[in-house]
Write a structure and sequence with these properties.
The protein is mainly α. The protein is built from 6 helices and no strands. The protein has helices spanning 2-23, 35-63, 68-75, 77-91, 97-120, 135-151. Helix 1 (2-23) crosses helix 2, helix 4 (77-91) runs parallel beside helix 6 (135-151) and helix 5 (97-120) runs antiparallel to helix 6 (135-151).
């Protein structure tokens, strides 16, 4: 079951990169001859990259007296940032894509910085619980798009893109 989840995630990431970036930015043509090869190659590269990150996190935790559970919990805080961006896109029509992108960037940077500042840079007996490390990044990812949308409204139509604008 774990292997199925992991390969589905890797293929999903490759599909998102393909559809939302390469095709949308017209870097490749949809339905081209090399499209399937490119998607398979991206899946392989993303899979190797994810395994590399796992190895680095595992060996990195040995020197700082952290368990794999703590390391996973801390780095999983990036998912909280993505959750907030997803909720902004689904629930709030006035939030534009660039509002969400700025919130995601700031929340992600904060979520990558805080583990070092609040957890790894302090003595093990003085650390706060690793569960709280992701909360500031999540809050920034939620508040920044909302604040930006108050000053610069989304001018594009969101019909059918948010919960409030779905039609039966």
């Amino acid at each position: 079951a774990l292997m199925s989840t992991i390969d589905s995630t890797v293929n999903c990431i490759a599909n998102v990169v393909h559809s939302d970036f390469l095709v949308r930015l017209k870097m490749i043509k949809p339905k081209s001859v090399h499209e399937m090869f490119l998607c398979r190659a991206m899946s392989a590269v993303i899979g190797v990259f994810c395994v590399g990150i796992a190895v680095v996190l595992t060996y990195g935790g040995e020197g700082i007296q952290s368990s794999i559970l703590e390391i996973t919990g801390i780095w999983s805080s990036l998912w909280l940032v993505l959750l907030m961006i997803f909720l902004m896109g689904v629930l709030i029509p006035r939030v534009a894509g660039w509002h969400a992108a700025i919130g995601m960037l700031l929340g992600g940077v904060l979520s990558l910085y805080l583990p070092y500042a609040l957890y790894y840079a302090v003595a093990p007996e003085e650390r706060i619980s690793f569960v709280w490390i992701g909360v500031p990044g999540m809050l920034v990812a939620g508040v920044v798009p909302l604040a930006l949308s108050l000053f610069w409204r989304n001018r594009e139509s969101t019909d059918g893109l948010t919960v409030w604008s779905l039609r039966s």
